[in-house]
Amino acid sequence: MKAREMKPRNRIGFTIVELMMVVAIIAIMVGIAFPRLDLTRFRTDAAARLVRTLLMAANRNAITRQSNVIVSFDSVYSRLRIVQDYNNNDTLNTQDWTQFRKIEDGAVFRTPTMNGLSGTSVTIPWDGAGVRTVSSMPSVVFRRDGSASTDFTIYLTIRANVPTDWRAVSVVANTGKTDMFRYSGTAWVRMNQ
User: Whole domain around residue 162: which residue ranges?
Assistant: First the structure.
């Protein structure tokens, strides 16, 4: 009798050993990459984007409805108060529409530990020569013509002790244009919107 010839079989699929090797390689790669992923930076960016978006919406709303919009910054509760000032008197009245918007969890308006956007020392969480106080909160007023009441910058962070976690949102008085900035560790850098 002839010895049986062994024919290679056509395999379909993977063996359990091959699958385990792939899972082990993926686990090692995740273990290396995950500690380098800084989710706080993304949360801080989200908070700054929300503040910028609300300021831009207030500016558009003032133009569209032809009435001033007051945006106030509540540093105690980390939120913005948006007021549709129907009679354009720059104060909060009972007939004015009011809305509060909380910023990202953990984000706070805080005095920066470094110089502000203007390059000078900042002693409060906001910066601007003509910042108004409306109902005991610092505020910027967007006018019906698209301008703002003052050049204004608000500073926020999630981790105050980490310099690269600082963000700033600024408003230009003449145009009501808003910009976002992040602190690189040495200077303020405009963020891509």
Answer: 39-190
